[in-house]
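Session log. Operator J.P. requested a structure for one protein chain; no other inputs attached. Running the standard single-chain path with token output.
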Amino acid sequence: MEQRNPRLRWLVVCVVAVVWMAAVMGRLAYVQLFCYSEYLAKAQRQQERIFEISPKRGTIYDRKGRELAVSLPMDSLFGDPAEITDVDMVGRLLSRVLNVPADDIETKIRQAHSPVRLARKLSPDVVQRISDMNLNGVFFQKENRRVYPQRDLAASVIGYVDIDEKGIGGIEQSLDKDIRGRPGKMMVMADGLRRWYDRRESAADPGASVTLTIDETIQYIAEKELAAAISETHAKAGTVIVQDPNTGELLAVANWPTFDPNDAGSYPAQARTDRAVTDAYEPGSTFKVITLTGAIENGVASPNELVDCQMGKILVAGRLIHDWHPFGILSVTGILANSSDVGAIKVALRLGAPKLYETARAFGIGQYTDIDLPGENRGLLRPVDEWSPSSIGSLAMGQEVSVTPIQIVSAISAVANGGTLYRPRVVREIRYSATGTERPLRSADPQETTDARTAATMREMMEDVMLEGTGKHSQLDGYTSAGKSGTAQMIDPVTRRYSATDYNASFVGFAPVNDPAITILVVLDSPVGPHHGGEVGGPVFKRVAEQVLAYLGTPHDVPSPSDVETAKNLRASPRLSPASAETDASKARFAEAVARGSDSAAPTAAFAGDDEVVVPPLGGETVRGVMEECSKVGLAPDLIGNGIALEQFPSAGTQVPRGSRVTVRFGEPGENDSAPGRGSVN
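Structure written below.
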């Protein structure tokens, strides 16, 4: 056999080697040049774990800088599976403190390939007990817990947050991107054996602070009087709004039922609803203000003109409509004062459907107000071409149209201020603490609803409602006032017809007449017994208006009667200063809280707790200081007023179950005149 040439063999070997090296180099070049980013990302995923650090949400203040929502640092518990050598032991020990099954803790640790969160936002004593165990691989990371020191005060306006600090409802939701801030990051590095050897953190940027137009004291007055009205009338729900008619700023928005945002999940959805912006209802006779404004502005009626109200019956396009009372001859002013349906319909027929529709649109009916709150309902105002032949009769007296409380109070404010419709606002300022800059607020140009002369005429006519009409029993002491009552039949959900028993009773008005400082709307859903707006809503308007005007220091424009009964409470004294009114309001709230606590066998608990703690001394502390002291021992503070702590209940040294509420009243030094035994901290 012929022997092969050795040089040929070497040539073959060299060619194979060159081809192999070329393939290897080509593959290396491909990986390095074209797959670099992909493999780098894979390596980083294997070696790095990034955890988000929740930012501190911005504080929400009332218009005077009093805290309504704050975030406090809390410790969350993490476990590192690479450092925990005895998972069973760690699970057993932690389960006793956290009150969760040991199996759940062990499963979390075993299934994790990186540090895993075991528990969130622990109380200080739980943190201390776990720290004392000195467990390897167990560590804490700061998170923030949202706290609402005033509990249910203005809850529907403020809103609340979920466990992840995401805003739900109210300002917490509508301004969540601003309040939430920018999250930080914690990066943990691991070696090839997944042993963690380095940890780096980038700080979170805190959220913006928000100052509301709401005044805590006015809000308390509105909520207190609404709760009293609900108790007296047994209404299903209600709303009270106090607005500055000259700016559109909302000073108070009270809703019933309400909720405590510190424990929002335990309340039904109805209680968490902001009825002021989400619930639309037929306004009834309060809409007659808009009907008559259009008629007077367009020259088809005048205040002193007489109208035959036909003893309470009128036929409109073949439909017989009955008045609530058989009125005869009334002036146009008398139609409004006595709330005659037939009179309003006859004036509306003169005005005509297109002009009535234009007037209602000018007052913002059937349109979004663009308020700074989520879930706004725009109500209903159908175009004229969708009206039936008798629709003008219905709209004239506030039927076949629906409004939200925010819409109607803003419309009446436009009459009060001379004809200008302002966008209702609850946000006064948004400020970023990190940069000290202020975010420009959304603005909308005021709209002219009617001319100044017509507005002045309507103010006089609405004043006559208070002097001679359906609001005469709700005249204010020391102030002129103007108003309008409303009583609207509700739709029966079964028959889809107007109910013969359920009504929406409302009253809206402003004071003083010639220089209005406030506009107030009261709405009560299905009061039991008396149901006319003037009967049940008017007295609430009176009580709220007198207290708020005294608190604002509004000068009296008529003499005030000096009866003893009126002098006993907050709204009576014409010499009452804003500071003393605020002090009296805080004392009243504290007395109510003490009375509730004294009547109970045990202090009210805000959250569950198995053991007892000692109430710490809180005298002289600031609001934040009290919150921090209570947080340390696991108590829920109920804070009243502002300044420094003057009184507390239960008193310092009392043993109470963990999670109990501690009521603390704040004020200026030297104003404390509480009786011994009520937790005075002088």
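Operator note: The chain has 22 helices and 28 strands.
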